[in-house]
């Protein structure tokens, strides 16, 4: 019997284009089937189409942060897929704390015996590392965000290229909230700016920030007041949160690119969105309530459900209970356990496309 006819490359590409990006090993294994398939999958044009077809980068792994009084979590990037990462930068640092994951990068605050404290921007897919000097703000409580600095970037393939680090802290010396920005293009930190208005609270929460356009949103401890850093105007301002008291909240980016706020009360997940009303003023609108009883498992009747984070673009909320860490897909209600029992204050989702162009996959497979 003669061998079956080969698929036309255009048809092959259309089939391979539909392999799910959240299981990247499928695409890599397909590239090993034969040389024509490898040629299709390795083509830069196909990879651009693949990223554009699937839109937002998939969730590949998780880190998380704790309150300072609770110490530091394990120093590891926990994969949520079979994709292998470059090793977590542990060996050369006596202390290390994950601060943010965004645009294909992980931001770490690290300490070496020789050089003291500094920041490290690490790409787990390519293994690239870039050292960032420490910021000149005296602080114990702080948070930060790492963002791509390429103008007009769609953030579908943010490996390499310039970046910025936005650092927000409660200054120990003058009890003010300050922000400073590092640019990889200039290799320097900006002059710190202070919050002009009094918020009644000067302690920053070590939660993951929300990025919308040129604005980055952080949270303070008292009443979950929100700090907005406007990178275009280089200034800080305060936004009052929804009138719902909760110790565990997360900021979100909603589907319409508005600022979102999530919290839990009485076994219900409340989602709020900051909308502009007919008068042109921004106000919080409750957009959804999700009953969690029977949806997310708990260890016992006294166990509490806590919001721990959000993955933008893929509609995933992270929650923890005495049973473990769970992610909920808001569009389908699907619940998946992604971590063992423990205290999760702020989950940092690592999201990136992992294609055969990544050296790690080529070497390991």
TrEMBL record:
The keyword Ribonucleoprotein does not apply. Residues 99-356 form the F-box protein AT5G49610-like beta-propeller domain. The keyword Transmembrane helix applies. Residues 9-48 form the F-box domain. Keywords: Membrane, Transmembrane, Transmembrane helix. Pfam families: Beta-prop_AT5G49610-like, F-box. The chain crosses the membrane at residues 307-328. This is Uncharacterized protein. It comes from Eragrostis curvula (weeping love grass).
């Amino acid at each position: 019997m003669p061998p079956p006819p080969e698929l036309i490359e255009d048809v092959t590409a259309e089939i391979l284009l539909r392999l799910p990006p959240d299981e990247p090993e499928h695409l890599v294994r397909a590239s090993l089937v034969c040389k024509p398939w490898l040629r299709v999958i390795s083509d830069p044009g196909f990879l651009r189409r693949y990223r554009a077809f699937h839109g937002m980068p998939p969730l590949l792994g998780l880190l998380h942060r704790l309150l300072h009084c609770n110490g530091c979590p394990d120093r590891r990037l926990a994969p949520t897929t079979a994709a292998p990462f470059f090793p977590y930068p542990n060996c050369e640092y006596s202390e290390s704390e994950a601060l943010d994951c965004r645009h294909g990068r992980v931001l770490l605050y690290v300490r070496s015996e020789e050089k003291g404290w500094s920041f490290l921007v690490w790409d787990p897919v390519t293994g690239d590392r870039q050292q960032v000097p420490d910021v000149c703000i005296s602080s114990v409580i702080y948070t930060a965000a790492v963002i791509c600095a390429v103008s007009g970037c769609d953030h579908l393939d943010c490996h390499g290229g310039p970046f910025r680090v936005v650092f927000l802290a409660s200054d120990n010396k003058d009890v003010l909230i300050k922000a400073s920005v590092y640019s990889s293009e200039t290799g320097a930190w900006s002059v710190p700016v202070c919050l002009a208005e009094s918020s009644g609270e000067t302690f920053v929460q070590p939660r993951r920030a929300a990025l919308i356009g040129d604005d980055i949103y952080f949270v303070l401890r008292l009443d979950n007041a929100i700090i907005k850093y406007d990178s275009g105007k280089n200034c800080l301002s305060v936004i009052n949160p929804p009138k719902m008291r909760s110790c565990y909240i997360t900021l979100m980016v909603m589907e319409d690119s508005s600022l979102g706020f999530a919290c839990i009360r009485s076994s219900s997940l409340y989602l709020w969105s900051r909308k502009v009303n007919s008068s042109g003023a921004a106000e919080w609108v409750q957009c959804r309530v999700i009953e969690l009883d029977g949806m997310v498992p708990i260890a016992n009747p006294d166990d509490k459900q806590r919001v721990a984070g959000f993955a933008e673009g893929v509609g995933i909320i992270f929650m923890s209970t005495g049973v473990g860490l769970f992610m909920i897909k808001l569009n389908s209600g699907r619940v998946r356990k992604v971590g063992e029992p423990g205290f999760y204050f702020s989950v940092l989702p690592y999201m990136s496309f992992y294609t055969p162009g990544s050296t790690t996959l080529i070497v390991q497979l």
